[in-house]
Structures are given as structure tokens and as C-alpha cells.
Design goal:
The chain is α/β, with parallel strands linked by helices. The chain has ten helices and eleven strands. Bound molecules: nicotinamide-adenine-dinucleotide.
């Protein structure tokens, strides 16, 4: 039987450790860790994600501050807010909830975030440190995937790993993390020729293309590990029901693989947990607290 890589279970286990870590160290720091979340506009999915982050923070003892700005705000106003939060010693972590409305320059706003507070790990300085394999904030979804693999002692070193997708959010940082851990990594994308043949070689196949059910069993080697990053809500033809699915046609693939991540309950919960880890990592650095979290930041 195939092994389910249960992200929900692992995220609860890590959260328990984080909660204890905060409890043990808050007296020395004289305050709890804190996270500022900037949301712009009314995208309903963003509202749900921000809500989930707020709840996760409160479960472990991180104070969260939500700044919900209107779509009509000026880019300079957002920059001012980021700069204010950059200078605020009571704020350890900060993130801009993505996507933001198209009229704003997303990259330039991310560049404004103090790299020491950039809990999404998307600032150039943190990406640069990842390229150099130096400790820093790591982007959350890729770091969550590495932790999921490690939690089941799935070997990365020496393995053939194929990553589908080359986004700055997932595919690129994930490929770099796996390369730093001595995997032999192939990064593929929408212009890749013969994707099916390349995927069939993989010991570990990671699908982050954002295309529902793209990967069926013909893409997968017998006994491989398959990680499904995609998350999509599909509506039934009569429009009465909706159902979540990933980039992988799981029912077709599961009988063939050694291990897989479910959707939901695989990669998703780990992403939020890694945000908590990054926030505490920043808090820990600011107050010179003992560091026990470094293993969680690949
Ligand atoms: P993106 O659209 O920015 O990037 C998609 C990448 O996939 C691109 O590099 C593109 O070249 C590649 N691609 C597209 N179609 C392809 C195809 N047919 N064959 C090969 N490559 C193809 O998306 P993203 O932000 O990287 O996210 C990818 C998916 O992961 C989305 O479904 C997103 O919702 C999901 N996601 C989930 C989490 C989570 O926590 N579970 C976090 C981030 C993203």
C-alpha cells in the first residue's frame, strides 16, 4: 500500500513544538513573536488564506496584525506602511498576501520588505542566500515539501527529482532547496518538450504546474514519490457541487507510487506552518534565543 504523506498531521506536530518553544522563550524575549499581514483589495480567496494564517498564529502564540487596504490605495502608501513595519521593533515578520491587484508593482513591494522580516522568503536577498545555500528565511511551500519528505526519511541525496513548474513562489526555490540537499534536479515548465518521458525517470516527482489533473499514472515511475502542490476547486457539470483537486490524478497514480501527498491535507497545511517557523526564526534572531528550528529551514 502507498504511504500517505500527511501534511495536516505533520503540521500539527510542528505547531506543538513551536508553541512550546514560544512558551519557553517568551519570558526572555519579554514578548510573543508577531506577524504583520498586508492584504490589498477584496479577493475572496485571499480573505480565506489570511484568516487561516491568523488562526494558525493564535494556535501557537504568535500575535498577528492584519492590515487590509482598499484597492484604491496608492503604491506609495503601501510602501510607507511596509517601511513603517520594517522599523517597528515589535514586528518580527511581515508578508504581502498574494496575488495583489494587477495595477500594483508586486516585485517592487516585496523588495521593500526588510529581508530579516520577509517570512515568505521572496525578497531578493533571501532568494540569493538560498542560491548560495546560506541560512535565511525560506519560501514556505518549498520548505514545507522538504519537511514532508524528511519526516518520512525519504532520501533526497542522489535521487533523480523532477519539478514541474518554475515559478518564483514554488518551482524555482524548491528546485534550489533540493539541489542544495544533493538531489539531481530537473526543472520543467510549460515549454518543456516530452514532459511525460522526463517525469517517468523521476524517483521523486513534484507537480506545481497549476493545471488540474495534469499528471496521470503514465507520467510516473513504479515506486516513485509524488508530491502534488496544485490546488484547484472544480465545479460539477450541473454546477451543484464543488470538489478540490491537485495537479495529479491521484486515484490513477496512487496504486503505482511508494508515497504521495493528498489534496487537500498534503502540501497546503505545511505552507502555513512554515510561515510560523519563519516568524519564530526572526523572533529568535532578534532576541538571541537558542536556535532549535534551523533543521526546519532547508
Ligand atoms: P504559476 O502559475 O506561477 O506557475 C506555474 C508553472 O508551471 C510555470 O512555471 C509554468 O511554466 C508551469 N506549467 C504550466 N503548465 C505546464 C504544463 N502543462 N507542463 C509543464 N509545466 C507547466 O503557479 P505557482 O504559483 O507556482 O503555483 C502552482 C500551483 O500550486 C497552483 O495550483 C497553486 O494554486 C498551487 N500552490 C499551492 C500552494 C499550497 O500551499 N498548496 C502554494 C502555492 C501554490
Amino acid at each position: 500500500m502507498s504511504l500517505k504523506l500527511d501534511g495536516k498531521k505533520l503540521s500539527l506536530e510542528i505547531e506543538e513544538k513551536l508553541k512550546n518553544y514560544i512558551f519557553d522563550n517568551k519570558e526572555m524575549a519579554k514578548r510573543n513573536p508577531s506577524l504583520a499581514v498586508i492584504r490589498i483589495g477584496e479577493d475572496p480567496a485571499s480573505g480565506i488564506y489570511v484568516n487561516n494564517k491568523e488562526k494558525a498564529c493564535s494556535r501557537v502564540g504568535i500575535k498577528s496584525f492584519i492590515f487590509h487596504l482598499k484597492n484604491t490605495v496608492e503604491q506609495t502608501e503601501i510602501e510607507k506602511l511596509i517601511n513603517k513595519l520594517n522599523l517597528d521593533n515589535d514586528i518580527d515578520g511581515m508578508l504581502l498576501q498574494l496575488p495583489i491587484p494587477k495595477k500594483f508593482d508586486e516585485q517592487s513591494l516585496i523588495s521593500c520588505i526588510n529581508p530579516d522580516k520577509d517570512v515568505d522568503g521572496l525578497n531578493e536577498q533571501n532568494i540569493g542566500k538560498l542560491v548560495k545555500n546560506e541560512p535565511a528565511m525560506r519560501s514556505c511551500t518549498p520548505a514545507g515539501i522538504v519537511n514532508l519528505l524528511r519526516s518520512q526519511n525519504i532520501t533526497i541525496e542522489g535521487k533523480k527529482i523532477v519539478v514541474i513548474g518554475r515559478s518564483l513562489l514554488v518551482g524555482k526555490p524548491l528546485s534550489l532547496m533540493l539541489l542544495n540537499l544533493n538531489g539531481t534536479v530537473t526543472m520543467t515548465h510549460s515549454k518543456t518538450i516530452n514532459l511525460n518521458n522526463i517525469c517517468k525517470e523521476a524517483d521523486i516527482l513534484i507537480a506545481a504546474a497549476g493545471k488540474p489533473n495534469l499528471i496521470d499514472s503514465t507520467y510516473v515511475k513504479e515506486g516513485a514519490v509524488i508530491i502534488d502542490v496544485g490546488i484547484h476547486r472544480l465545479t460539477s457539470p450541473d454546477k451543484t457541487k464543488t470538489k478540490l483537486c491537485g495537479d495529479v490524478l491521484l486515484e490513477d497514480v496512487i496504486p503505482k507510487v511508494f508515497a504521495y501527498t493528498p489534496v487537500p491535507g498534503g502540501v497546503g497545511p505545511m505552507t502555513v506552518t512554515m510561515l510560523l517557523v519563519n516568524t519564530i526564526f526572526s523572533w529568535q534572531k532578534q532576541f538571541g534565543l537558542s536556535s532549535t528550528l534551523n533543521d526546519l529551514l532547508p
